[in-house]
Design a protein that fits this description.
mainly alpha
């Protein structure tokens, strides 16, 4: 860091091959722009992407976890939801799953 800003270090660029890329967008909530409209996903009453008990949106094969489905929350919730969402996607793709599903999409923190 220089003067409180990150500076690029020459020679540190790298390319990582991937079949899928997941974007962590932070706490801004789902951006209601062209890509969500093109997908045709539904939103809940809070403006988050609506999902079923397997974390799938109303669009078959489009799964939602973390801030996009829950709204602003803690990273521990996003991690648990990511695991549960992976189990939902696995079950949808394979017909069954052996993956753990630690929390339901409707789970809430203890009050």
């Amino acid at each position: 860091m220089v003067n409180g800003r990150f500076e690029k270090i020459e020679g540190t660029d790298r390319e990582i091959p991937a079949d899928f890329v997941f974007l962590a967008m932070g706490f801004v909530g789902p951006e209601k722009g062209s890509w969500l409209e093109q997908l045709g996903v539904s939103f809940d009453e809070r403006g988050n992407v609506a999902r079923n008990d397997r974390y799938m949106s109303n669009v078959p094969g489009v799964f939602v976890a973390g801030d996009m489905g829950r709204g602003q929350s803690l990273i521990v919730w996003a991690i648990a939801e990511g695991r549960s969402c992976a189990a939902g996607a696995d079950a949808w793709l394979m017909g069954e799953t052996q993956l753990p599903s630690p929390i339901a999409p409707t789970a809430r923190p203890l009050q």
